[in-house]
Each structure stands twice: as C-alpha cells, then as structure tokens.
C-alpha cells in the first residue's frame, strides 16, 4: 500500500472513531436528559401547581432541558432584563454607575425592598439602586430604574436580544395596571437564555457581566435553591406574587455549573411549591 493510500486509510479510521464518539456522547447526553425529564415530570405531576423548568449544563455541551416553557407572570424575575438594559447603557457610556438618583416620597412603593425606609431626598448612586433591585428585589429601586430607562426602551432591549416571551407592561406594585389587565411576562426559556449568556460573558460585556454576577450572587432570598444546595455558589434572582414563586440563575455546585430556572403558577401551597422546586434543583444537580 503506497503512502497516500495508507494516509487515507488512517484518516478514515480516525474520522470513523470521532463520529462514533460523537454519537455515543450524544446518546449519553440524551439519556441524561431523559432521566432528568422523568424526575422533573414525576415531581410536577405529583402536585396541581403549574411548573415550568429550564436546565442547562454549559460545560458539558448538552442540549438544554425544557419543560412546559411558556409566557408566565414574571413577578420580580423581569428585573434581570432591566439590569441588563441599564448595564448596556453603562457599557456604551450613556450612563455611569456613579451617577446619582434622588429618592422622593412619590417614588416609594410597598412590597419587597428597603428603600421605603430611606429618608426623602436621599441621593443614591445608580450602582446602589441596581444592586438593591437585585439583592433585595427592591420594588422602589426597580421603579426608579424604569423611570430612568423608560418602559419602551426596556422592551426594545428585550426584543432586540431575542427574549420574545418577555414584556414589561407595568411598574412594580401598580395595582391599577393589574386591574386593567396589564402584567409583566417572561418564560423559563428567556430567563435560561439570559443566564446562559451571562455565564458565558456574552450578555453585555465582560466587565458589565461580572458586575451583574456580583449583584446576583448577593441575592438575599435563600429560601429555595440555596436551601436545596447548601455550599453551592449561586448567582440568581427570585420572584414572588400571589400564587407563584420563582427562582432562577447560575449554580456552581460540586465542580459543575448548571443554569436552572423554575417558574410556578397557581401553586397548591407556597410551602409545597418551594419544596418541590428544591427537589427539582437537587434532581438537576445530581442527575
């Protein structure tokens, strides 16, 4: 056999091996998703609560697992998109984290957060407002951000970046808007895509993504994912309204990285929904 034929035979053998390895790996990853699907669906079917789940393992090149993804009331989960829009403007020099916002009595709303306790006329940096919007899920801080950016601009950012299930239609604690049929929506697919981009530092820019990750790691609501996976480092956001509780973000656990988002609607009970979500998080982390 001449050298050319020998080379072609060796190359063909190597290519065949690579193809076989690829399909073997693909079958294993698909099997892993099948196992995860069985566990998630069993937990979901044991409860009347509507569960929606996104799980991805970016270091393992697996296909993201999606369960019942659809537009759902976003609660405070929508705040991550406001954060990214603001950070895009910081990247482009249109805003600065050192710029200041004055807090007025008319800005204060109830629900989550601590800014309601600040004195009227307090001067806050944009960095502080954005951090409180995420770590404390502060509704007053969120409304300050909406006023600063404009609702149309936020929705333009959302659509421009391909989050087609997501829409900001009202400010936080705007019950008149809710009664008029307006609400904010997103999906686990949109949130999962957001957190995956953020993990890959492909969301806004490396520096801005690092700042956003620091905010998310400072999340003070530790009732769900952190309780389910003690010891894990979690960069996440939670959301809650009547009948729903959500958690989603990036979980660094046992030398493995996982993007996990779980949303609920019409829960049978708050306690049961969170316990089920914790079991789902453990199933995803350990499957």
Helices and strands in order, then pairings?
Layout (H helix, E strand, L loop, with lengths): L2 H43 L4 E7 L8 E3 L4 E2 L5 H13 L8 E3 L20 E3 H10 L3 H11 L1 H10 L14 H5 L5 E2 L1 H12 L6 H12 L7 H4 L4 E9 L2 E10 L2 E10 L4 H17 L1
Antiparallel strand pairs: 1-2, 1-9, 3-6, 4-5, 7-8, 8-9
Question: How would you describe this protein?
Answer:
- This protein is α+β, with helices and mostly antiparallel strands.
- It has one domain (36-165, 178-286): Beta-lactamase (3-Layer(aba) Sandwich), CATH 3.40.710.10.
- Helices cover 48% and strands 17% of the residues.
- The chain has ten helices and nine strands.
- It has helices spanning 3-45, 79-91, 126-135, 139-149, 151-160, 175-179, 188-199, 206-217, 225-228, 270-286; strands at 50-56, 65-67, 72-73, 100-102, 123-125, 185-186, 233-241, 244-253, 256-265.
- The strands form three sheets. It has a five-stranded antiparallel sheet with strand order 2-1-9-8-7, with helices on both faces.
- Strand 8 and strand 9 form a beta hairpin.
- The longest helix has 43 residues, at 3-45.
- The protein starts with a helix and ends with a helix.
- Mean pLDDT is 91; it is low at 18-30.
């Amino acid at each position: 056999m001449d050298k050319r034929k020998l080379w072609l035979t060796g190359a063909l053998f190597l290519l065949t091996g690579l193809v076989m390895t690829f399909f073997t790996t693909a079958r294993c990853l698909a099997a892993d998703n099948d196992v995860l699907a069985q566990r998630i669906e069993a937990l979901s079917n044991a409860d009347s609560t509507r569960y929606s789940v996104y799980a991805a393992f970016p270091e393992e090149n697996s296909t993201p697992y999606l369960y019942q993804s659809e537009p759902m009331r976003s609660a405070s989960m929508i705040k991550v998109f406001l954060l990214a829009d603001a950070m895009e403007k910081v990247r482009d020099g249109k805003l600065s984290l050192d710029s200041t916002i004055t807090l007025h009595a008319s800005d204060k709303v109830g629900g989550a957060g601590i800014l309601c306790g600040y004195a009227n006329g307090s001067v806050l940096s944009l960095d502080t407002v954005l951090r409180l919007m995420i770590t404390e899920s502060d509704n007053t801080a969120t409304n300050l951000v909406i006023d600063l950016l404009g609702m149309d601009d936020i929705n333009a950012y959302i659509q421009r970046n391909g989050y087609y299930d997501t829409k900001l239609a009202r400010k936080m604690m705007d019950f008149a808007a809710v009664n008029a049929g307006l609400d904010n929506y997103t999906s686990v697919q949109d949130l999962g895509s957001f957190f995956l981009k953020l993990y890959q530092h492909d969301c806004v820019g490396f520096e801005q993504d690092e700042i956003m990750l620091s905010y998310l790691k400072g999340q003070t609501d530790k009732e769900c994912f952190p309780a389910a996976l003690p010891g894990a480092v979690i960069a996440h956001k939670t959301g809650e309204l009547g009948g729903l509780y959500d958690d989603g973000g990036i979980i660094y656990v046992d030398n493995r990285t996982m993007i996990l988002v779980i949303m609920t609607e019409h829960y049978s009970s708050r306690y049961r929904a969170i316990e089920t979500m914790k079991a789902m998080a453990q199933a995803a982390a350990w499957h």
